[in-house]
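Sample 3 of the quickstart, ligand nicotinamide-adenine-dinucleotide:
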Amino acid sequence: MADRLGVGLVGSGFIADFHVQAFVGVRDADIVAIQGRNPGTVRRLADACRELRVGDPSTYSDVGELVRDPRVDAVWVTTPNHVRVETVRAITDEVTSGRARLAGIAVEKPLARTVAEAKEVLEMIEGAGLPHGYLENQVFAPALNRARELVWRRGAAVAGPPYLARCAEEHSGPHRAWFWQGAMQGGGVLNDMMCHSVEAGRHLLTPPDGERLMWLRPTSVNASIASLKWTRPGYADELIRRWGPEVDYRRAPAEDYARATITYLTAEGQQAVAEATTSWSYVGAGLRLGFELLGPEYSLAASSLDTEATVFFSREVRGAAGEDLVEKQNAEQGLLPVVADEAATYGYTEQDRHMVRAFGDGVMPAETLHDGLFVTRLLMSCYLSAQEGRTIAWDSADVDEFVPEVAQGTWRP
Ligand SMILES: NC(=O)c1ccc[n+]([C@@H]2O[C@H](COP(=O)([O-])OP(=O)(O)OC[C@H]3O[C@@H](n4cnc5c(N)ncnc54)[C@H](O)[C@@H]3O)[C@@H](O)[C@H]2O)c1
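Result:
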């Protein structure tokens, strides 16, 4: 491998675009290749790389070709959930057959749609002998990590470890048809967004020098899901109008609201609780991420919409709808928050920097696919709890073959 890590992006959609922006803050690496089904988005993303000076990527339609490109040292997998297994198989086949050499692979959240798929992905990657990273950006978010480091160092060191984490992620609904379809995405908002919130909760409750998989042992999971907005007849019609007949919430709805309470036992034998709330039915300025951590003599709070800057547009200002102020923006008038550098605020920049450094050094990143698999187990236990209307004891939870009703298209809210 050269001094600089050559990164290949597999997929050229929404999140690939965020990675390109994030690489502005990444040293010692370039985006050297991009693969996608749509030549137009691949070309636009490659142009953006050149414009931002984060690389001069070659473009491919075939995943195998990208992996065989000698400039590619590591790949970022950003294809949709329903093609996660086949995408990873195409990559690892190149490596195990000796046609390509890689120093690492990073995979977007959620790792997969089910525990069975998550295990398959992990086994293929470990079978190919590759270091692996789980692209869970929120555990790299600077505000979260700075505040976490402070409360653990100043608060927990004096008064004892924290006992309650609350994490929330809400917006008004996803940006592509496949997210809305339970079978393709693996569920609704619980799979799509609670993967972030359960991992952020686990992260906050774990000491900065601790190992999450060692520090926190789940004891029980209790969750519920609902369709609060998008099965209302007018909104079900709106989904069909927006995304086509495949997104039919009268026939096959997915949850647009989920809450979960996960109880843990710490390595020191104390109880800790993580609450998570997620929704696709929040209409506010835009994407809202909320974090709280409570301990015996201290607390932490962060919200992505408490921004450093706001703008105001009077009713005389009528502009085109856009997402230039904040992701999933819902309005263009009134008092509006501005997230100045979304790639940094949401943690993509620090995440990509960390992954590049780990792969360049030939070591495992701090967030691996073992974390991704663990999160998938938590999420499937949440679906099981919601389906059966009971608290699931962690030790008795057998979710290896579990497929949520929402993903099967049989859920009736
Ligand atoms: N970390 C985050 O905050 C975050 C945010 C958004 C999405 N994601 C994750 O990233 C992944 C991609 O999401 P996205 O929003 O970029 O999706 P997207 O639909 O915008 O982009 C997906 C890309 O994969 C390509 N693709 C390859 N095979 C495909 C197939 N069979 N069907 C459809 N597309 C195919 C598409 O052409 C496109 O380039 C998902 O796993 C999603 O959960 C993570």
